[in-house]
């Protein structure tokens, strides 16, 4: 979905953004007609409040949008976007009320609020458009919104239409758009090419597992993105209850997020050598499903005891991370809807991430605030390494006890990169459970904008 802000100079209705403390002052500076209209309306400037001001002929002369207080704005990532459903159709131009540091964020929120998933029914709603504010890079904001829309579309599509083959098709479409190279290893060829754990997890499905490998760029640092592409997760033989299986179409959210991030990088022409690796599988139940107590040998040669077939994401990521590390990238990132423990720890809104690099953490945290894309650093806690060592094999895919589940999963993945690799792992949710301004219920991009914004610092571009 292509998105764009209206260009500067477009005829537009003035949009006055007023905090609760600004309403009386602004109204006092207007004509008697407008002041009386504002006072009679009861407009108080709360977030999401809208007041259209008509001219003498009943046409929109201006619009007021509530911006709340600093305290209430901290609760709404895109406060301006809360007004969109109530604004009359048309094009608007912001007339003050938003400080320069937040203009890009609010313009992005406006675009994100225009998203509509209408693949299965005609439910499109015409949203008002916004003239690009001064000092906002319209092209950059549009790219950020396009990336989010791509990610949302992929996650929102049910598994019946978004299996491994369809995920490959989406990756090929993105590669074609940006003239990137792409190769795919499918089915039994995974074994011949030494991706045994990707094959083991996906072999029970009649939708063949595959490894998608996309590359772009000829100069600059090497950046490798690895995204979990479990297109549906039954849990395998350790089958999930129905209540836990209901949202498993989003278990390829890591893949959707790295494709969104890849779009940002390529569309912006960032001077890097980008590689995107997606192990795409369905974790199904069949006679040839991998089993509890099986021991798998990974691409890296490490053996893994399977103590829960529902801890499959880390298995497919392990083989892909090993491949990525073989290319000695300057930065390697994994993104995955990996553990319920992460949701218990930080809820659905924060994207927890792991890194041993304090420079990475500082840069990511600053970018997260700037990009309205909240993240939270979690520890690679070395003393927990013993929890993923079962004794019978090198690693345990599902340590007993239930403690520190997100941390032990991250430690498991770290075993498949080298000590010299600059590695970041995101344990995302990939889903917005309750609609919020600029963030409709459904698939969500998490952590990718923050990472994109931090790349120039991390890679000295």
From TrEMBL:
<dbReference type="GO" id="GO:0030145">
    <property type="term" value="F:manganese ion binding"/>
</dbReference>
<dbReference type="InterPro" id="IPR043472">
    <property type="entry name" value="Macro_dom-like"/>
</dbReference>
<keyword id="KW-0378">Hydrolase</keyword>
<dbReference type="InterPro" id="IPR048816">
    <property type="entry name" value="Peptidase_M17_N_1"/>
</dbReference>
<dbReference type="GO" id="GO:0006508">
    <property type="term" value="P:proteolysis"/>
</dbReference>
<dbReference type="InterPro" id="IPR011356">
    <property type="entry name" value="Leucine_aapep/pepB"/>
</dbReference>
<dbReference type="InterPro" id="IPR000819">
    <property type="entry name" value="Peptidase_M17_C"/>
</dbReference>
<protein>
    <submittedName>
        <fullName>Cytochrome c oxidase subunit II</fullName>
    </submittedName>
</protein>
<comment type="similarity">
    <text>Belongs to the peptidase M17 family.</text>
</comment>
<dbReference type="Pfam" id="PF21337">
    <property type="entry name" value="Peptidase_M17_N_1"/>
</dbReference>
<dbReference type="Pfam" id="PF00883">
    <property type="entry name" value="Peptidase_M17"/>
</dbReference>
<dbReference type="GO" id="GO:0070006">
    <property type="term" value="F:metalloaminopeptidase activity"/>
</dbReference>
<keyword id="KW-0645">Protease</keyword>
<keyword id="KW-0031">Aminopeptidase</keyword>
<keyword id="KW-0464">Manganese</keyword>
<dbReference type="GO" id="GO:0005737">
    <property type="term" value="C:cytoplasm"/>
</dbReference>
<feature type="domain" description="Cytosol aminopeptidase">
    <location>
        <begin position="308"/>
        <end position="315"/>
    </location>
</feature>
């Amino acid at each position: 979905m292509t998105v764009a802000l209206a260009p500067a100079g477009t005829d537009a209705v003035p949009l006055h953004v007023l905090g609760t403390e600004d309403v009386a002052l602004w109204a006092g500076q207007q004509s008697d007609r407008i002041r009386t209209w504002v006072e009679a309306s009861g407009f108080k400037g709360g977030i999401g409040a809208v007041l259209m001001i008509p001219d003498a002929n009943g046409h929109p002369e201006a619009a007021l949008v509530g911006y709340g207080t600093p305290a209430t704005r901290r609760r709404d990532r895109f406060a301006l976007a809360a007004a969109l459903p109530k604004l009359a159709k048309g094009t608007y131009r912001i007339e003050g009320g938003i400080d320069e540091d937040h203009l890009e964020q609010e313009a992005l929120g406006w675009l994100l609020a225009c998203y509509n998933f209408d693949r299965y029914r005609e439910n499109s709603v015409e949203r008002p458009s916004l003239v690009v504010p001064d000092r906002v890079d319209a092209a950059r904001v549009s790219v950020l919104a396009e990336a989010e829309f791509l990610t949302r579309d992929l996650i929102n599509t049910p598994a019946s239409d978004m299996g491994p083959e369809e995920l490959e098709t989406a990756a090929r479409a993105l590669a074609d758009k940006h003239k990137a190279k792409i190769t795919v290893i499918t089915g039994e060829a995974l074994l011949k090419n030494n991706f045994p754990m990707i094959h083991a997890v996906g072999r029970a499905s009649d939708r063949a597992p595959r490894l998608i490998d996309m590359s772009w760029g000829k100069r600059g640092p090497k950046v490798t993105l690895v995204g979990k592409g479990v297109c549906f997760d039954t849990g395998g033989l350790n089958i999930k209850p129905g209540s836990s299986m209901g949202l498993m179409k989003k278990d390829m959210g890591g893949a959707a997020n790295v494709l969104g991030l890849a779009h940002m990088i390529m569309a912006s022409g960032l001077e890097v050598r980008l590689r995107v690796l997606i192990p795409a599988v369905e974790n199904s139940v069949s006679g040839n499903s991998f089993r509890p107590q099986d021991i798998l040998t990974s691409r890296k040669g490490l053996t893994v005891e399977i103590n829960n077939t529902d801890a499959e994401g880390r298995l497919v990521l392990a083989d892909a991370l090993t491949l990525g590390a073989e290319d000695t990238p300057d930065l390697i990132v994994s993104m995955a809807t990996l553990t319920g423990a992460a949701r218990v720890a930080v809820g659905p809104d924060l994207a927890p991430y792991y890194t041993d690099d304090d420079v990475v953490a500082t840069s990511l945290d600053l970018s997260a605030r700037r990009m309205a894309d909240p993240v939270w650093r979690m520890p690679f806690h070395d003393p927990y390494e013993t929890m993923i060592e079962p004794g019978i094999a090198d690693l345990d895919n599902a340590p007993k006890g239930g403690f520190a589940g997100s941390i032990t999963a991250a430690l498991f993945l770290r075993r498949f990169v080298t000590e010299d690799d600059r590695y970041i792992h995101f344990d995302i949710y990939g889903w917005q459970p309750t609609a919020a301004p600029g963030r409709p219920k459904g698939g969500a991009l998490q952590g990718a904008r923050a990472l994109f914004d931090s790349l120039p610092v991390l890679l000295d571009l």
